[in-house]
Give the backbone structure.
Amino acid sequence: MKILGGSNSYYIAKQLSDLLNIKYIPVETRKFPDGEIYVRIDGEVSKEDIIVVQSLAKHPNDSLVELIFICRTLKELNASRIYAFIPYFAYARQDTRFKQGEAVSLDIVANLLEWSGIDEIITIDFHLHRRKPEEIFKIPIHNLSAMRKLSEYILKNYRFSNLILVGPDEESEQWVKTFAKYFDTPYIILEKTRLGDENVIIKSEEELHEANEAIVIDDIVSTGGTLRETAIFLRNKGIKKLYAVVTHALLAPASEYNLSYYNEIISTDSIVNPYAKVKVAEIFTDFIRRRL
Amino acid sequence: MKILGGSNSYYIAKQLSDLLNIKYIPVETRKFPDGEIYVRIDGEVSKEDIIVVQSLAKHPNDSLVELIFICRTLKELNASRIYAFIPYFAYARQDTRFKQGEAVSLDIVANLLEWSGIDEIITIDFHLHRRKPEEIFKIPIHNLSAMRKLSEYILKNYRFSNLILVGPDEESEQWVKTFAKYFDTPYIILEKTRLGDENVIIKSEEELHEANEAIVIDDIVSTGGTLRETAIFLRNKGIKKLYAVVTHALLAPASEYNLSYYNEIISTDSIVNPYAKVKVAEIFTDFIRRRL
Amino acid sequence: MKILGGSNSYYIAKQLSDLLNIKYIPVETRKFPDGEIYVRIDGEVSKEDIIVVQSLAKHPNDSLVELIFICRTLKELNASRIYAFIPYFAYARQDTRFKQGEAVSLDIVANLLEWSGIDEIITIDFHLHRRKPEEIFKIPIHNLSAMRKLSEYILKNYRFSNLILVGPDEESEQWVKTFAKYFDTPYIILEKTRLGDENVIIKSEEELHEANEAIVIDDIVSTGGTLRETAIFLRNKGIKKLYAVVTHALLAPASEYNLSYYNEIISTDSIVNPYAKVKVAEIFTDFIRRRL
Amino acid sequence: MKILGGSNSYYIAKQLSDLLNIKYIPVETRKFPDGEIYVRIDGEVSKEDIIVVQSLAKHPNDSLVELIFICRTLKELNASRIYAFIPYFAYARQDTRFKQGEAVSLDIVANLLEWSGIDEIITIDFHLHRRKPEEIFKIPIHNLSAMRKLSEYILKNYRFSNLILVGPDEESEQWVKTFAKYFDTPYIILEKTRLGDENVIIKSEEELHEANEAIVIDDIVSTGGTLRETAIFLRNKGIKKLYAVVTHALLAPASEYNLSYYNEIISTDSIVNPYAKVKVAEIFTDFIRRRL
């Protein structure tokens, strides 16, 4: 077994090489002035099982094409089994045809990855709520969660007097529920109405418990519009300290302003970001060890 | 038969719709703040033959993924035969494994396009010199040339007293030869030695004819390094007026300075650029008419 | 007098050098892997009046910093008077403080350009409707219009049976009025209500004349949302053929789909785009000749 | 005194607000589809001294224009003194005119920042070796160093048997010397010859001490070409474990492959990167406390 990483996730591959004590193979990647990318696998892979690590973040199409180039080349070089560890999996929102004629991007990307030679996929907090991963992929897929490690980080580093856990919308319930298992605290799920790409309204039918602090939990922060509206809602209810916990800190432009409503942001390093407190390499390592 | 275009080549698709008198179907394309793209085909395609137009230029991975999304969706919507007109075909340089472990990008991209459901490919002045298109693709591929239209444009719009046609290197001979057919003028091929990604040396063993004007012909201008060195070489030989003729004006940063050694640049509109004098839609139309 | 162009507008500078018969000085521009830019003026400028051409389009901050680097360096190299020809002037929308704390970008950019050493600015169809250019700049500024050349192009190349000229909103009236002078045709101005960055509603109090064709006139097309809604409104009124005439074709992503509601788009080459029919170099040349 | 941060450095501003116990003012920043940026200062600044934090990294021109927009607006809103904390200062390489006609970018950027209303600049490990900061700026400038905190991090977290400290070239000596103060270990400075933008040769006249581990120290890693050649040189001398310590991890494409020659990379968070172990907010806080 050997490990290598694409240009989004070298540092994760290197940590895994240390944690799992398996050989790290450098991949030379470049971008030419015309935007084409170059990929070279700098090590022996023939007859080896290979773990490839690549988050599909920031420039998802560049990352995806690079991952395909790596996997196809591994197969040509006679690698045995390819395990793709994709900490952040892009294109999960377009999992169905909402309007006639739309590309169902998620299915196409899933099929592309299967075609590229990947035998098994491991990902973290996959943004799915209408469909199950197994319905989308023909190859085995393992959807790990960062919620346990994130809750452990919080429990170790913060003290609360009267805490509430909050999911900003129905979709977030699966993450909030997992996160809440490690807390002795109630959680509530708010109701979100979407008014376009960036605007949302947040409300709640439930009576809010009198709380001093709230942790808002979600899988992804992109523009941060949902988290901002949630913060405004909670501040209006008299909550003083706000924490945002998200697995994937995509941090699109404008997000930082929206996040300024929070006292602290806690995230993983699935994507390079300044709030990374939990290492996805450790989540993956736990999974591998359980499996062996 | 209907026609549609990706975000790089709408204008070509629309011209073709007029020239060939076939229905144009708009494609809605967007880019989300996180870099993901959205594709929607806004018209009936079931049981129709479809021409899809998309140059793989500027951001080749975005363009490629968009083309794949379009073609896979066309197939899901029961389109019949898909003809992909790809005026500029990217990734042609990496047509072999120069160093151990390299991705042979061209083969992977070719296979990807076949996998996406394309039945036939039409392209223009494909940058191949070691291999033939038929060796790379399993589906039919038609490699048209802009050289005739480019030469017609020059013959119609310029007068020369003592002209020479020049190819900057061995690879360019195929284009120079085609271009020269329409001229009553000799041509020479120079010798290029590459010293890295951007630096080249140009020389010639042949005695240069005493000429006042030179037209330098190539398929692609990317950084323009080769064209600049060729211009310096020709200026040193006493040639006064220099014209550059290229099919594909990629114009990477720095290229404009390198092209300032030329009096004029003449190109096609395979990629949006300020030197477009020949419409690739007309070249494609001629091909379709010959075929019917 | 000599002329040079920044990386957005080399081709315009070169055309002007021919049209005005003044010497062209190449500018070497590059972008390093870390995103920094490099500028070198490759010719004698001491004691010369200089025309600098640079549109502030596509990547407005890169274009602006490059223009500042060029002008400051010209002054250090003892150039005399600097005339900046800025075919497309960015940041014109933010000409006031709509909300407390906002940067009034237009004023800051104007002051920056003055500070950079520019003595006089010439631009085309400056997107201003609340303020006059002279209120913003302390240096002389000349706001030329492409509307005459655009109307001449239309009159020469198209025939209409029953035409109406249309401005999509109040702001466009200044351009429609100028354009309409050369036509023997009525014009109407529609009413636009903005519902966010991209969504607008178009309506009209006036009775629409029964027309077969409409030319919609505006200064800029960015996302094309306004033009799309205008087209839908006009189609609903029974108009068959739609033409869009815009000076500046910014063509942000998604614009091409929105423009697909039009039969044809006619624009200038102030920004590189596939619909350029009118050369801004000719508009500038007319201005210079009138002035001499 | 209040603090705010530009879009590159929000997280640093927020840490400083906690460390120094001064009020944090959010700045709303956005990028429009046409590439223009928007800036709004969301809080009272009149008659207040303000610390503005912004690294000029990743997209240096966007970052620079944003910083100018912020500072000019602060002055318009009657802020008192502006302290700009610029953890990473771009454009330091072009500190002189190497070739006739070049823009001396550093001087222009320095003058721009003075013009924008900044009263005092604080930066970290400014990449200067030919000139002193005081020769470039008319306003006070404080050049702090991360080398002490970086050495403390290393001393606390690693054990070495036979260590050598290495500077890859003459320019690096100032950083290596500072770093070495905290170690009881010799250091050597290698000799670098540059062969173009990306290629360098590393050698040494000195006899290398027999060492098992080497820490290579530099201020910036951009493409990583220098660090790679240094690693190859050191591996050839028999050194087993290699550590790279750099203040500013710019990490241009291709850098990650070049860094794969190292066992570990240790950096600061002056730019968001996966190797950040030292917080620049703490370095700045120490400076402020010494000063009060």
In short: The first helix of chain A runs from residue 10 to 20.
